[in-house]
Amino acid sequence: MNARQEECSGVLDRGEPEDLLSMRDGERFAIPGVRGRMEKLAFGTGLFLHLAELEVEQDAFFAVENYMAPGWIGGSWNILGELQVQPPGMAPLSCGESDALIMRVDTTGTRYLLPAGQLIRHIGVTCTLESLHQRFNGNLPAALAPFVRNDDDVVDMRVTEVTPRMRSVGAAMFARQLHGAGRRFQLEGLAILFLYEIIDSFCEGLDDDSEDLPDWEQVALERIMVRIQQDPGAPLVARQLADEMGMAETRLNSLFKARTGKRCAEFIRAERMALARRLIEEGELALKQVALRAGFNHVSNFSRAYKSWYGENPGRAQRRS
């Protein structure tokens, strides 16, 4: 059991779920304590996309029936919000803004907990193994072996890093520009990219060999991370931070990538966006003040960055808070 599994263990130990949802085309689902929309798109190519935008007013606890026959792989991620998911026979895992999931669950009865008081914007993509083999031209990455066995009772789900590319693709799925006759066409392309990014992130994570850092590099990395986390809105530039610590920018990025899965600039952006979201949810500052606190001199630049990160403009988020 990994650290995240231990952290969540027992969260879903609540007896029987309140609802059993059957995910089929054209159905709408009522989840007590939750308002919003859920959408499932089947593209006819062995590829399926699920999008959900849910306002969780009270803890929601439910199980889901499989709609796919055994033999598939999937990936899911919350661009906003947190939930816990527990496949049959496994410890619970978290799916949130910094952790995506790669999975194959042939057995029905996966259980979900949606904690109250949040907006969840969720993406899930599934693909049949036949379609997956075709898309990789039969040359599947060796790291996918646990998910592509010929058995019909595979239950495997693992956490993987959220990459900047994954975040960009996910945010695009919720863009208001996606509408009209071309929406399905665009979403199919984005779904393929999203699942590829999940797979690529998982495979890269397994290939990553941690190196033993010299003491001075460990200390330098910790100092920079603390400095960023304490004041992400400060004028922080990766090259300057590297110079201050006496190392090359490429080395600093390698250290950040090994520790956080992000380069230094990406880590700074993630901390700034998290700060901006907290400030908007608190509702005490105007957008211009939020932008300045998050390190942006112009509201227009801040709005573009926020929308690219969370899939909505900050004004909409502020009105909802």
Automatic annotation (TrEMBL):
Domain spans labelled HTH araC/xylS-type: 222-320
Keyword terms of this UniProt record: DNA-binding, Transcription, Transcription regulation
Keyword DNA-binding applies: yes
Molecular function GO terms recorded: DNA-binding transcription factor activity; sequence-specific DNA binding
Entries under Pfam families matching the protein: HTH_18
Keyword field contains RNA-binding: no
Gene3D superfamilies, per database record: Homeodomain-like
Coiled coil (residue ranges): none
Recorded superkingdom: Bacteria
Entry-linked InterPro entries: Homeodomain-like_sf, HTH_AraC, HTH_AraC-typ_CS, PchR_regulatory_protein
UniProt cross-references to PANTHER family, sorted A to Z: REGULATORY PROTEIN PCHR (PTHR47893)
Name of the protein in question: AraC family transcriptional regulator
Organism (species): Alcanivorax profundi
Lineage of producing organism: Bacteria, Pseudomonadati, Pseudomonadota, Gammaproteobacteria, Oceanospirillales
